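Handoff note, outgoing to incoming analyst
You'll be picking up this chain. Sequence as last confirmed:
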Amino acid sequence: MEIRMRVNGAVQLLDVEPRVSLLDALREQVGLTGTKKGCDQGACGACTVLVDGVRINSCLALAVQYASRDITTIEGVTGHPLPAAFVRHDGFQCGYCTSGQICSAIGMLAEHSAGAPSAVSEHVGASDITLSDAEIRERMSGNLCRCGAYNGIVAAIQEVATP
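Most recent structure output, in case you need it:
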């Protein structure tokens, strides 16, 4: 099946079988290997990408579902302040989860800016939820770091969120 999608601003024409995941299409057909395959079950977040600005686990998404959509992978976030903040705060160790962490954090910051509460938000109806360390940890809970760089990840996100 032939599909067209915009990946990191460039239109891609892909020939995929209906059961191919977005993750596999990005890695194998588009050649963008920054998005990682961790658990292949949606439990670790290493495969997180942005679809129309919303974070998703690309290992659980079928590529055909995202035809005509805007996909952003780690290769497409150049110029965003989060990657540099991750370096400054040692928000990575082995680096395997880092691309998913950064894409997820970008999506999470957009959700927070839109006023979306989390499970730890004190007042779910508030329009100005403070992005505390507890808020960041809850909002990023779908992204695992097997090396345990969570303190650096939270510090990097906090730096970018608090100009």
